[in-house]
Amino acid sequence: MKSDKGFALRPDLRKKLEAISKKQAEKEAEENAAQKALRQKIIGVLIKKARLEANKSLKETAQVLDCSSDHLSKYESGEKAPSLPELEMMARFFSVTLMDLLDETRRREKPPSPLPSEIMQLRDKIIGVQLRQARHAADLTQKELAEKANCSPGHLSQYERGKRSIPLPELETLAGILGLSLSELMDEDLGPNSPQARRQRNIERLVIMPEHVQDFVLNPVNTMYIEMAMKVSKLPVNVLRQIAEGLLDITY
User: Fold this and answer.
1) Residue spans of alpha helices (H) in the chain
2) Residues 151, 209 within the same domain
C-alpha cells in the first residue's frame, strides 16, 4: 500500500542507488580534476611562450614575481598554478594584456612585429610630425624655416611628411631653431603606461591620418574648433538631431 510519503524503497535497491550516485560523484570529481590539471598545463605553456616571446629569462621573471626560478618553472610545467595577481604581474612584465597572456590565438592574430626598415619609416613620420607641430607653434612657414636652417623648402616638406630621412646634423639645426632638444625627438625605451609612451602612441595615430587632417590638428589656431567638436561628440543623440534639423531649416 502507498503511504503519504510515497513508495518505500527496498534496502537492496537503496544501496544500489547510493552506490551509483557515489560512483557518479567520484567520476565528476575525477573529470573536474583532469580539466583543472589540463588547464594548469595549458596556462603553463602559455606563460612560457609569452615569456620567450618577450625575451625574458626565467630568473628575471621570477624576480618580478618575488619567487624562486624553481617555483616559476613549476608554473610553466603545469605542476603548480599561479594566482590571478601573479598572472597580472607577468602580463605587465611581458607587455601584453592578461587576456593575450591566457589566449594564444589572440597573440597569433596580432600583426607580426615590424621589420627594422618599417620601424625607421614610422620613426621618420613621427619626427616629421613633431617638427611640423613645433614649426606651427613657432609661427613659421616652411619657407621661413628652410631659410633659417639653410636647406631647401622641398627637402623640409619631405622631412615633415616623413618621406625623407633627416640627416642628424640637419635635424639638430632644425630642432635648435624650433626650440626642441634632441632628447625630445628620441625614441627612448619607456614603459607602456608612461606619459611619454602615451604621447608617442598619439603621434603614431596622427601620422596615419590624411595630411590635410594632420595640418588642421597641428595648427594651434584650430584648437577651438577641435574642442568644439569634442563637446559636440558628447551631446545626446536627441540634441544632435535637433541641431541637425535646425541646420536644415537654415539651409532650406
Assistant:
1) 11-53, 58-65, 69-77, 84-93, 98-102, 104-109, 116-137, 142-149, 153-160, 168-177, 182-185, 195-207, 211-218, 223-233, 237-251
2) yes
